[in-house]
Write a structure and sequence with these properties.
alpha/beta; two-stranded antiparallel sheet; 8 helices; 32% helix; 22% strand; binds manganese (II) ion
């Protein structure tokens, strides 16, 4: 059986102030795709629509990893003083990737920032900073805990529920932003104890899933539960391949 090709969007990182950025993906994402039976390949973070359409044309599934904050202009807000780093080139790249993937009906998995990009691309909005915009609620675990920071409740009859087979799960938490208003055609598939959205997915027949936690780090620490998410995504991509 030929492996489904999974396109991963990349980020820019400086390793040397005098030089140009490195473009890449943390290996934990690649490992999870490989373990689940996918063939990962990396899209350079370049805001070029044609290039991204061509790359998506070679893919059977698309994974958007974690990273910077989405430019709030993308959801018609002025930047808050609590906004973190923004990479407009990366935003452009990933919005083009998503547009092309949606046109082709490819499976999409968004992780942390990827979940937020997904929501904004579907017309939704974000909390630019959870603790600044939801001060009446207990502070969200923006963990220094690399393993488990809080629980999530998983909505029944969702793809996430079907993938994990659980009503609740322990997750890590490294986000200071979160989904505010849901995009069109999306539902929440998980919430934390304060009602904050911890995951989203499409209501249509295509596999479109976003999670706010970092399952790739949990899998790397031997958490078998979250392997099932990557399996469900790669299996959906395999259907596109065959
Ligand atoms: Mn969280």
């Amino acid at each position: 059986m030929k492996l489904p090709r999974i396109l991963l969007a990349s980020r820019a990182a400086m390793d040397d102030a005098q030089s140009t950025p490195l473009l890449g993906v943390r290996q934990s994402y690649l490992d999870c795709v490989l373990q689940a039976g996918g063939y990962p390949f990396i899209a350079p973070r370049i805001g070029d629509q044609k290039l991204m359409e061509d790359l998506v044309g070679m893919a059977h599934g698309v994974l958007l990893p974690g990273g910077e904050d989405v430019d709030p202009a993308r959801y018609n807000q002025q930047p808050s003083p609590h906004l973190g780093a923004v990479d407009k080139e990366r935003d452009a790249c990933e919005f083009y990737v998503l547009e092309a993937a949606r046109k082709r009906g490819l499976p999409i998995l968004g992780i942390c920032r990827g979940c937020q990009v997904l929501n904004v691309a579907f017309g939704g909005s974000l909390y630019q900073d959870i603790n600044a915009e939801r001060p009446h609620l207990p502070g969200h675990g923006l963990g220094d805990d690399f393993e488990h920071a809080h629980d999530i409740r998983i909505t029944s009859s969702t793809r996430l529920h079907a993938a994990l087979g659980l009503e609740s799960a322990h997750v890590n938490s490294f986000h200071h932003q979160a989904v505010k208003e849901l995009g069109k055609g999306l539902v929440a598939n998980a919430h934390d104890d304060t009602g904050l959205i911890e995951g989203i997915e499409g209501t249509g027949p295509e596999y479109v899933v976003g999670v706010q936690c970092h399952p790739e780090l949990l899998v790397g620490r031997g958490d078998g539960v979250w392997e099932r998410l990557f399996l469900s995504f790669v299996q959906a991509s395999q259907k596109i391949r065959s």
